[in-house]
Design goal:
about 325 residues; alpha/beta; Rossmann fold; 8-stranded mixed beta sheet; 4-stranded antiparallel beta sheet; globular
Length: about 325
C-alpha cells in the first residue's frame, strides 16, 4: 500500500473492533456492535493522515484501538516494526511513550482536581522520566511550546477557556516526546475562531518535532487544510483512501462524493452552480450492518452485486484506493 516499507511508521491490517451485547440475568451474548470491521491502512513517518466520516462510523474507536486503549477483536497494528496487539501490558506501557492522544473534549479530558502543572507533569512521573525540580522545569518548557504562560501551572482547568484547555492537553501529549499522536477531533468542541489557532499550533509542532498525526475529524475543510492523505470511513469500514487533493478533486466512491458535495464553496457564483448529493435514509445499525457493501442501502448506483459481495479495497490509481464495485465509472 506504500511506496517504501522503511517509511511506514504505522501499519494497520484487517483491524476489527466488535463490542459484545449482553442480555438477561446470566449475561448471555446476543450480538455485537461492529464498530470497526476489517480496515487496513498505513501512516508514513512525518505525515498527517486524515480520517473522516459521519458520527458513529468508528473513527474514534479506530484511534483508541491503535493505541490499545481498546483491545482489538482481530487484526494487526504494527508500530515502528512492533505488533502492538501481541505485546504484554508492561511492554505496551513502555511503547506508549512513543504514541499519545489528544482527546476531543478539553473539558472532560483534564482532571479538575489537578493543577495544570500536575496534569502536564504526570506522564513524566508515571514513566520515571523526571522528578522534583526537573518536572517543574519541563512543565514550564512544555507550556511555552504550546504558547501558554508557565505561571499557569499552579491554576486549575476550570480557570481556562476551551482553547487554552486544549493547549494544556497538547502539552501533556508532548511530555514524553512521542513520534505519533492520535488527534481525536481536537477542535470540534472549540469555537470556530479558536479552531484555526489550534490547527496552526499542531502544524508548527509537527514541523518542530517531526511528529506523525492520525487526525480524526468530520470537518472536511479543516481536514483538507492539515492532512497529506485522507481516508473516508463509513459504518466501520474505509471506503476510500487517497492523497488530499486527489480526493477533493476527483472522489471515486459515491459516499465520498456525497460528503464532499456538502462542503460549502466560498465563491457565491461557483456555489450557485454547485450540485449537492442528498443521501436517502439513515445510517444502518452497526449491530446488524447490511450484507455486501455497507453503503448499498443509501447508494444511488447500487445494484444486486452490492448486496451479494463485499467490494474489494483496491488501488485504481497510484495511491488511490476505493472499495466500490463500480468506481471505474468515475475515472
Amino acid at each position: 500500500m506504500a511506496s517504501s516499507e522503511n517509511n511506514i511508521l504505522l501499519k494497520v491490517e484487517d483491524l476489527k473492533m466488535h463490542f459484545p451485547i449482553y442480555k438477561g440475568l446470566i449475561r448471555r451474548q446476543v450480538g455485537a456492535v461492529h464498530a470497526v470491521d476489517g480496515i487496513s491502512f498505513d501512516v508514513m513517518r512525518g505525515e498527517t493522515l486524515g480520517l473522516v466520516g459521519e458520527s458513529g462510523c468508528g473513527k474514534s474507536t479506530t484511534g483508541r484501538a491503535i493505541l490499545q486503549l481498546y483491545k482489538p477483536t482481530a487484526g494487526k497494528i504494527v508500530f515502528d516494526g512492533t505488533n502492538l496487539v501481541s505485546l504484554k501490558s508492561e511492554d505496551m506501557r513502555l511503547m506508549r511513550r512513543k504514541m499519545q492522544m489528544i482527546f476531543q473534549d478539553p473539558y472532560a479530558s483534564l482532571n479538575p482536581r489537578m493543577t495544570v502543572g500536575e496534569i502536564v507533569g504526570e506522564p513524566l512521573l508515571v514513566h520515571n522520566i523526571a522528578s522534583g525540580r526537573e518536572v517543574d522545569e519541563q512543565v514550564a518548557h512544555l507550556l511555552e511550546i504550546v504558547k501558554l504562560n508557565p505561571s499557569f501551572s499552579t491554576r486549575y482547568p476550570h480557570e481556562f477557556s476551551g482553547g487554552q484547555r486544549q493547549r494544556i492537553g497538547i502539552a501533556r501529549s508532548l511530555a514524553l516526546h512521542p513520534s505519533f499522536i492520535v488527534c481525536d477531533e481536537p477542535i470540534s468542541a472549540l469555537d470556530v475562531s479558536i479552531q484555526a489557532q489550534v490547527v496552526n499550533l499542531l502544524e508548527e509542532l509537527q514541523e518542530q518535532f517531526n511528529l506523525t498525526y492520525l487526525f480524526i475529524a468530520h470537518d472536511l475543510s479543516m481536514v483538507r487544510h492539515i492532512s497529506n492523505r485522507i481516508a473516508v470511513m463509513y459504518l466501520g469500514v474505509i471506503v476510500e483512501l487517497a492523497d488530499r487533493d486527489t480526493l477533493y478533486e476527483k472522489p471515486l466512491h459515491p459516499y465520498s462524493q456525497a460528503l464532499l458535495s456538502a462542503v460549502p464553496i466560498p465563491d457565491p457564483f461557483a456555489e450557485s452552480k454547485h450540485k449537492r448529493t442528498i443521501l436517502q435514509g439513515d445510517v444502518p445499525s452497526p449491530v446488524n450492518p447490511p450484507s455486501g457493501c455497507r453503503f448499498r442501502t443509501r447508494c444511488p448506483i447500487a445494484e444486486s452485486v452490492c448486496a451479494e459481495s463485499r467490494p474489494e479495497f483496491r488501488e485504481l490509481n497510484p495511491g488511490h484506493f476505493v472499495a466500490c464495485h463500480f468506481a471505474d465509472r468515475f475515472l
